[in-house]
Write a structure and sequence with these properties.
single chain, alpha/beta, eight-stranded mixed beta sheet
Length: about 250
């Protein structure tokens, strides 16, 4: 955890104190979460973490808002089209949670920036839309032992897993190669479901509550209303784990 901040003098958390206790609330308030992406997944993840009382949220996105984003990216309004997503997200989150520290970085995630960004965080949310950047961010988080919450969506379906260095397989064990890119069709509610689950994983980790989705991949199918878990094991020939002594 980063340097401790004073407890918020607010009754807004009274409905969750019965679940995580004052110590759990204090842990949230003294934590820093890095959210990579202020779009479909980043919108629910950042919103629910800010509302839960996470003390510091770092949000990174180098894109500008487009009208086609608005079916799912509710951190941004129609009036925000053309604005930087990171700054729009910062403004919205400040309105929702004025006591939280929101740090916006309208920068591209590359190997240099990723190493710097993860140093300031207790946990990382992967709310990205391309796998090349996902692997860069994951590798930097793994190198310094920071948990990485992976989420991805397509259409009416999504997936989620929590990667904890030293305790779970890495992202390369799950996805050996980089999938093709391109625009992916998506229903906004799909992003809402998976992004909310990412926020839940962060809350569980920071407060030490519940069981995280590690060593398993959650597959959620919104069309059929079904969820299933696939066991993930370390691949013996994983280039990343083997290179890093796992």
């Amino acid at each position: 955890m980063k340097g401790e901040k004073p407890l918020y003098k607010s009754s807004r958390f009274e409905r969750q104190l019965a679940l995580i206790g004052s110590e759990g609330q204090k842990k949230l308030e003294n934590s820093t979460v890095l959210i990579a992406g202020a779009g479909g997944l980043g919108s629910p993840a950042a919103t629910y973490l800010a509302l839960a009382g996470v003390g510091e949220i770092i949000i990174v996105d180098d894109d500008n808002i487009q009208e086609s984003n608005l079916n799912r990216q509710f951190l941004h309004s129609a009036a925000s089209v053309g604005r930087r997503k990171a700054y729009s997200a910062e403004s919205t989150l400040h309105e929702l949670a004025p006591d939280a520290s929101i740090i916006a970085h309208p920068i591209r995630i590359d190997r240099t920036s990723a190493r710097q960004l993860v140093r300031d965080a207790d946990i990382v949310i992967d709310a990205l839309d391309n796998y090349e950047t996902r692997f860069i961010l994951h590798d930097s988080a793994w190198a310094v032992g920071i948990p990485y919450i992976h989420g991805a969506i397509e259409g009416f379906s999504g997936q989620l897993t929590s990667i904890i260095p030293g305790k779970s397989p890495c992202l390369s064990c799950l996805i050996p190669g980089t999938p093709p890119g391109g625009k992916i069709p998506v229903i906004g509610a799909t992003a809402g479901v998976i992004g909310s689950m990412q926020a839940m994983e962060v809350i569980k980790f920071l407060t030490g509550t519940g069981t995280m989705i590690t060593g398993r991949l959650l597959i959620w199918d919104g069309l059929s209303g079904r969820s299933e878990y696939l066991k993930i094991g370390r691949r013996k020939n994983c280039h990343f784990c083997s290179d890093h002594g796992e």
